[in-house]
Amino acid sequence: MRGYNIDSYIGKKFNKLTLIKNLNKIDKHNSKLALFECDCGNVKELAFTQVLKGKIKSCSCMQGNLSNTEKEKQRSSLLSFYSNKTQRNNLTGHTRNN
Asked: Helix or strand or coil: residue 70?
């Protein structure tokens, strides 16, 4: 069997998530699923490898806890991304640059 032995990681903490149980299930992307408990108390079924590699750090409770500078940085990057895109009229295909 390839991959990680999830049972050996039970009880270990990854960022805000603690591994509770191996679910012995596989998601549509062929990733092993496990049950995690977040520091905030939520319990979620997540892909083990994504948590192990740090791609998932919480149950999504941290999204509201960004500092004002982090929020402004995200906002400005999104604004610059969308301002550089050419706007199109869906009916005529006419393009317009702002």
From this structure: helix
Cα–Cα distance, 94 to 52 (Å, whole number): 47
Contact 80, 74 (CB under 8 A): no
From start to end of 27-97, where are the E strands? 32-38, 43-47, 87-88, 95-96
pLDDT in tens, 16-58: 999 999 999 998 889 899 999 998 888 999 999 999 998 998 8
pTM of the model as a whole: 0.62
Contact 79, 98 (CB under 8 A): no
30: which residues sit within 8 A by CB, 6+ positions away?
A: none
Q: Which of 47, 37, 55 is nearest to 3 (CA)?
A: 47
Please list, in sequence order, all residues whose beta carbon lies within 8 angstroms of the beta carbon of residue 40, skipping any fewer than 6 positions away.
16, 58, 59, 61
